[in-house]
Amino acid sequence: MPTARQVSWAKFRVAMAVVASLAIFAVVVYLLTGGTLFTPKSTVFAYIADATALSSGSPVRVNGVDVGRVQKVALSGSNDPNRVILLAMEIDEEHLPDIPVDSYLQVSTDNVVGDKFVDITRGRSTVTIRRNGEIAFKPQPELLKALDLTQFEQQVRTVEATLDDIEQGRSEFGKFVLHDDVYNNLLRYVSDFQRDLRATVGATTPLGSLIYTDRLYRQIQEPMISLDARLASIQAGQGQLGRLLRDDAQYAELRDKIAGLRKTVASLQSNQFLQSDEQYAGWNRTLASFIRNVDDIEVNPLLGTSAEYENWTGVASQMRDLLADFRKDPRKFLRIKLY
To answer: What is the DSSP letter of 36?
Structure first.
């Protein structure tokens, strides 16, 4: 039967796993929404002629920049061929000032697969669209009406010249089609690459040893096994850390030491020196008396002027000269009196 500590540890691990899962889910949702999940949005409307391949969630762009998503595509009930479909769009409020009221939208193709998106072209008005406003729809021009025949003829001639270069082998692609030089060069490059790849992943190379042997796996496995054994020993109450987790004797000892330290601090706080200022006042009086004595010494005439010092210096000089003369000729100092 598991102990209370093991049950608590299991609950803690489950709680941590739940918290980590929620954090990962929040990050994934934030990334999938492009970081605009909590951005305030406003709804604007438009009427279009056809909603083929356009559905809820399709991008809404202003001059190529994503500003929102299509919220709803539904029939409007209008008999106007250009207002058959009601289009509701969620636009980030921060982008509403970037859409003037004279802007217009078209349904464009995003890629060759045929994914559709709402393409809004900015107008020039200084008044911008508001919430629940309407953006005008401009149908796409038909290809034959919008096509310039002169430009089409130039493009046909360019394509024809390109095909002639290919047929005559003047271009690289034509050389590849008509001759086998490019093929041989490509085959040689592929052979060289295969040879280099075999040499790189050989069993004797460092990379090959990592691929064909379990050396890297064992290098990773051994520390993990050691860590697992260490954690198991700690959980089993072995070692100093394990005993600390399993037995509260060291905790009790530390608690007793802290209690003793608290008592010591309390005894120091109850000391007379900390409780009253009598000793502090006595020390101040002693120090003041010492300062007065020093001041009395400073005002002494012996220390105040240099006259006494000079007198003693002169006496010492005379004594020194007298001793020097005595050492040179002691007979000078002998006086014999005859009576």
So the answer is: -
255-274 burial: b if 16+ Cβ within 10 Å, else e? eeeeeeeeeeeeeeeeeeee
Cα-based torsion angle of the residue sequence 186, 188, 189, 195 in order, rounded to the nearest 10 degrees: 150
Distances (CA, A) of 207 to 153, 195, 213, 222: 57, 15, 10, 20
Residue 29's pLDDT band (cuts 50, 70, 90):
low
The CB density around residue 335, as the number of other CB atoms within 10 Å, is: 5
How far is 291 from 283, CA to CA, in rounded Å? Answer: 12
117 touches 147 (CB < 8 A): no
Token readout for 109 is 């193709």
Q: What is the DSSP letter of 132?
A: T
Q: What is the pLDDT of residues 133-177, one digit of tens each?
A: 999 988 776 544 445 566 777 778 888 888 877 777 777 667 666
Of the chain, the end-to-end C-alpha distance in Å amounts to 134
